[in-house]
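re: that chain from earlier
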Amino acid sequence: MTAVTATTATRRFRRSALLGAVVATALGGGAILAACGTDDRGATADGPAKLSVADSYIPLPPTGGMGAGYLTVRNDGGSDQLVKVSSPAAESVTMHRSTASTMEQVESLDVPAHGALELARGGTHLMIMGWQKAPALGDQLELDLTFAKSGTISVKVPVKELTYRPGRS
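^ sequence. v structure.
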C-alpha cells in the first residue's frame, strides 16, 4: 500500500468513526429524552389526569360551626391542580394547609401525576362554612371539586362521628 492510499484510508476510517459516534450520541440522547418523558408504565407525565375521589368524610361539626372536610384525590394520569371547591349546601368551602402552629388558606393544591392529593387531619383540608342546614350524622354534603385541567367532579361526602378515621373500625 502506498503512503497516499494509506492516508486516504485513514481519513475515511476517521470520518466513518466520527459519523458513527455522532449517530450513536444522537440515538442515545433521544432514548434518554424519551425515558425522561415517561413514567414506568409508559404514560407521559403531562398527559391527561385520570382522577377519582376516595375516603371522603366530614367529622360532625359543632352546632352552627365550621366543618372540616377530608378526602383523597387519586390520579392515574398526568398532573393537575385542585383550584376550587364549592357546595350548593354551604356559603363557602376553602382549602387550607396546617402546620404545627399555623393554618393558612391556599389558592390551589397540586395533584401529582400517578399519585394522590391527600386532605387529612393535621395537614391539608377543607373548611366548610355557612351550612344551609345543620348537618347530622349520616347526611351527605355535595362538594364540587374543580381542577385546572380536568374540570369539575361532584362528590357526596358523608358526615361521620367526630372521632371517625378512614380505614379504622
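The chain has one helix and ten strands.
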